[in-house]
Amino acid sequence: MLKVSRRLAVWLLVIMALTIPVPSQQQSAPRISVGPNVHVSRSNGDRDHTEILVAADPEDADRLLVCTMIWSGEQNRLSSGVYASFDRGKMWTLTSEDRSTQMVWDPACIYGVNGTALFVTLPGGETSGDGKRTFPIYRSGDAGRTWTQTTRLPFIDREYLAVDRSGGAYHGRIYLYGTGTGLPQATGPVAVRNLHLFYSRDGGVTFTGPIAPSLPDKMSGSPSVGGLHSGAGVVLDDGTLLAPYTIFRVRNDAPRDVTYRPSQALSVVASRDGGQTLEPPTAVTQFGSGGALCRDMAPSVMAVDRSQGPFHGRVYLVWGEIRNGRCAALMTYSTNHGKTWSPPSTVDDAVRRSSGKGPDVLLPGLAVNRDGVVGVAWYDRREDPENQRHRMRFTASLDGGDTFLPSMPVSEAAYSFESPERYPVSPVVFGGGGRPAPPSYGGGAGQRTSPEFSTTVITAPRLYESVGDTGGMAADANGVFHVFWTDNRTGLAQLYTSAVTVAGKPLRNGATELTELENVTERLELKYIKSVYDPKARTITLHARLLNTSKEAVATPIKLRATTLTSDLGSPRATNADNGLPGAGAIWDLSSAVPRGRLEPGQATEPKALVFEIQGLRELGGRTRIRESFDPRAQFIAFDAKVYGRLAPSQIRGAAR
Q1: pLDDT tens-digit profile of 282-297?
Q2: Domain 509-656 top-level CATH class
Q3: How many angstroms separate the CA atoms of 567 and 351, rounded?
Q4: Domain ranges (residues) in the chain
């Protein structure tokens, strides 16, 4: 018998420990790290801040911009300003503030190429010589330290900026767009409201436009219906501009609901010729006739993967929609330059309450970093049973938007509503012989006069919940996410930021064991031949089979990966996934259920058990309680999944030919 010394035995054990393979999810488990909160608006701590947009300079990780509306109750004035940082978000300076009128709305800012930057605002009531409302363009040649007004343009509402960095024919071109009225469409009648696009070929000194896309006939022509709300867009590597917007109908005589407005479709419009023309909108998702778009999350946000990773060129779009009785953050993506879009899926991980009060999420921010990691942040109300107090949270995807990591709180304090509440208030006066009222107040053109004054005191613009109409986050040139928000920890609505990093690299198909396989879902049909609920263990076991409905064989390995897993009645978890994951990302290997390692056309696998546990199950308690507290078809569990496998050798040879 071979004798082994004690010392040699120890060394053998060490070598064996070092060489035994470790499951991939333990080797490189993704991790979100949140940095300390930084008080951006500290120098203006006596004034409330709301409604933000954010920019990071792709050419220099030190440079960041955040533009915001600023309220002064002492002066009854709303201004718009831009804060700049030149040390990766540690220190901030208010480098420009537009106080040209009593109310300056909707700031937007962006970096151009070669250290330039643009800052745009919408001053209330500003008109040109012909009485038409206009807005200013401010330009910086030193990355946001100083600013100069370059021009004024015809008014649009809630404007956005995008820059071409493609290196192609339109490199450096700046796009500016928002909601306008009265401009003829490319074809058809005059639209009530439409997206209006300008572009600049000289870095923001001058602009050409506006132009508008054709809208569907049912959304144009009538002054009583129709409308549009644009969102943050992107420019792709081939120079295509994509801009999201929501086409909706609102009757003039209909009450304006505080939660949502009746909506028609979330759409995307494209310009593929440098802004000279706009294609008709492509519908991304249709909303129900009763409306399903969360009013607090009306703007949609778009980002593109510019990395050299497995999802290069993928375009992402997030928005808010009422799903299962609460406002949820949804995402879709396009792999063909915005021509078609994936089915929407929920990004946030908040769980619907049985009471029906949320929790709602507000104003998502979206960015993709240099590695192809997708980051999403939002204001989240899960901590408040009354669905009012909110805190910023962040999550990330490393598989191209199919699944997301458990979200993390970013803000150290929530925006709270303590009793007695503090109300920033603003008086609005009509009548007498004052200045012309802006169209948004119903004054229209000309002088609005009256033999008496009418004063209305309301909450200051977009400040009661301190979030406004837009939120913001960005990814810098080093791949760090910068999340921005407002909260009232000091007693006033102040602006904060935090740097967020994500450890982990994007993987094709979401897992190391799947990177060499192909998505074969469209070749298969998933069938359940048996389903069992165990009331003691509170588990559901589904016996699943895959049927090959295509005309070609699929070879093993064949694996099913869950991309979502939710429940209306509790917290679900997969208990028998082969990779050990309990939620989204769980993988079941069906290879052993495939006869002779090859699933022929018309052939089915042997059954495979998928087992789920529902933790904290809220029992239905009878049919009456179902109707009172839940949808009659309450979902015990719901999950989406994709199947990956190998193309059969004959198919590979055919593809090579």
Answers
A1: 889 876 544 466 764 4
A2: mainly beta
A3: 8
A4: 509-656
